[in-house]
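no rush on this but wanted to send it before i forget. theres a chain ive been looking at and ive put its sequence and its fold in token form underneath. please have a look and point out which stretches look like helix strand or loop to you. thanks a lot i owe you, the record is right below:
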Amino acid sequence: MEPEKFQNKTNGITPRRWLLLCNAGLAELIAEAIGEEYVKDLSKLKKLLDFVDDDLFIRDVAKVKQDNKLKFSQYLEQEYKVKINPSSMFDVHVKRIHEYKRQLLNCLHIVTMYNRIRKDPTAPFVPRTVIIGGKAAPGYHMAKLIIKLITSVAEVVNNDPLIGSKLKVIYLENYRVSLAEKVIPATDLSEQISTAGTEASGTGNMKFMLNGALTIGTMDGANVEMAEEAGEENLFIFGMRVDDVAELDKKGYDARKYYSELPELKQVMDQIKNGFFSPKQPDLFNDLTNMLFNHDRFKVFADYEAYVKCQERVSKLFQNTKEWTKMVIKNIAASGKFSSDRTIAEYAQDIWGVEPTDLKIPPPNEPREAIDQTARAVKPKKV
């Protein structure tokens, strides 16, 4: 037994797929600014910090993002027959559908925005396109109900003439790698809002960060390390920390307390309960509302107010393209740690006891001697 080999290593993503392949415009712009070394050593992205105040670079980064959004808007309009405002904020939440990942919290915020627009259609509002995607496990009833709620809310919001182009909701069908390669480069805001203490790490958040999206999130999973790398002030962090969750567990979480104290939350929950989004089946979401009121292990209501307020901060900054893009550049510059090259190098050094090599491994259809020759050349060193 070698217990010292049981270690934690921070996850990583491959920059070849998740930047060079899916976001060529940004990859080329970065190469023009700092050279191509970053392709093999993502930590070189730190050099981008020298360009945070460079007006030309800020403009070019914003243009690449807008080009990606235009391209993705056309795809969405073709696939979903919904007219998209490409100047709106693309607010994206893509991951497995699960109660702990709190797609429900996002959905409550969508309905809150919808209610605010309907209450005062002339009030200033920063336009948003909220994009949610992900798959549910076949037997996971609550996850499927969450998808049904999101699509039902989308149906109402997208067809309300009072709302117009201010707010649109899209549920991405059959979310998969090829679709992620389209949506991630076009994202302005990345939703990473699991209850603190529930997400092991996550890599979606890293892909968004590398591609120039800002993160709204809790102090959970890899968000913690992203905040360490970029500075907490360069992420939109909200809500309970791990200690707060533990304290609430000790005290006892009472969902009805938040429901009775927060008028906007009460209005949203009453609409869902009373069939506003499911007029033909008013009790369709009974299981879901019952869970939120009586046995929500992930405390959606406890973070609702902080989340809505944090989203207001997001909207305010989004109106200032220059300051928003400066924060984007700081995030891209801080994303070098999250390369899978670094993860694998740490495994190699700390666990496997092997060193990297530039030797190319022959394909399996080559003669056996070539494969044996490579194997001899890359023998692991003794530890």
About this structure: The longest strand covers residues 89-94. Strands lie at 89-94, 128-133, 167-172, 189-192, 214-217, 236-237.
